[in-house]
Amino acid sequence: MTKSALQIAREAYQPKLPESLKGSVKIVEGEKTQSVADQTEIAAKFPNTYGLPILTLEKGDKKAYPAIKVGVILSGGQAPGGHNVISGLFDGIKAINSDSKLYGFLGGPSGLTDNEYVELTSDTINEYRNTGGFDIIGSGRTKLEEKEQYDQGLANCKAIGINAIVIIGGDDSNTNACVLAEYYKSINAGVQVIGCPKTIDGDLKNEMIETSFGFDTACKVYSELIGNIQRDANSAKKYWHFIKLMGRSASHIGLECALQTQPNVCIISEEVEQKQQTLDEVVTYIANVVAARAAKGENFGTVLIPEGLIEFIPSLKVLIAELNDTMAANEAAIEKMDSDEEKVEFIVAKLSAELAAIFTSLPKNIQYQLLADRDPHGNVQVSKIETEKMLIEMVDAKLKAMKAQGKYVGKFGAQNHFFGYEGRCAAPSNFDADYCYSLGYTASVLIAEGKTGYMSSVRNTTKPADQWIAGGVPTTMMMNMEKRHGHMKPVIQKALVKLNDAPFKKFASMRDEWAKTTSYVYPGPIQYFGPTEVCDQTTKTLELEQA
Question: Which of 65, 151, 260, 354 is the most buried (most CB within 10 A)?
């Protein structure tokens, strides 16, 4: 493997650990838990893993553990720090017993069912410490949802001698891990299942999971790019840049990047939904900011847009839900259609008059994108909907109407961007390198202590790493019932931006000033070497939440 100078230097970086994980550890049980909602239904579906206590790891007396064999799976989209979770897990099980072994299932959850795996040795692990990506074993989006999959995975684990599986993933992957843990516990399979919280979107969080790994790094990467664009706009004095950011189900990335860079406009999907705003109201808000800046001779600016915005506009949310159900009910017929126009005509005929009118009012390319293939959950793939281009087109039309009324005197030129893949495999920041290593190491202790149905948890993360609090949170604690593919299923509840919390309140208190003035912040690239206050800083979101 050819390595860059940065990668060579990063190999020497030893991630920091909470004090409780340095040496012998004991588990302290806290209060028993219940799910965040739908307690009766969740308890009935998880009789063996529901109501478990929160666990905290503390310094303990030296204890002998038998050697264990652990399988690890990377599931879903990439996020910076995945390799360090695996490194921490490897070092942890070796510290527990030097004869322990770690196996990586290849290509995601399908590796478990297809029995494709590789033993991860120190030589392999050392090649990937503190690096971005998931390429050590690859990832995948196969869902572990069927009994046949569970049984085949168990047979494969038994053949290898695996005692526990660690699934590194987001809310859907950890939902699958929770179901798997329940099933294996119900049949006394002898295989534990532990999850680790991953997603750059930041929507897997609660009081016990303060942040999902990768969010810190991704936001710093996107904020650097936004800062570069803002400096260009301020230098050239032209172009409005409409920047769509990752975040299908929540606007955490958009909010964090706004706090870091101070753009002229940032739309928060959750606020749009709470205020029941229409698409026209969103467009009018942006157009008014453009016009106000133009009146001062500033025909440039930045607009941040969460990729999931279209699903939070109430009328469009109803439309998309109806489209999902209609397409699911007519899947066979739609698959036989040759053109997008034919699909549109077919779908429009099946919608109510009100929804049909909304659908046909959208630009043609957006109509076609709304009818594209669904994701594995039967939902529209919002990352493929060019919301940023739609808003540019609609803002332009609004400004032309305002100009005709004498309400706009500027010149509107726009550029569109979508920042997604740029942040998913970046070399992890020091925070993510430390946090991920701690998550993996914590998982090793939970396994050694015989726990299952838990997610690895590291808290107190705005303090120095040695003061972090490691432990485990029952995954059932995060569950609720949601409609998937037309049926109610238990899933981990997504964490949305809370409009009453400090991060949004800080943003809301400043956005009018940012809209009027050119007060951009240019964060620059991630710093790995240098003063602690520069290199180990957390996100603005965490700082404000825990202030």
Answer: 260
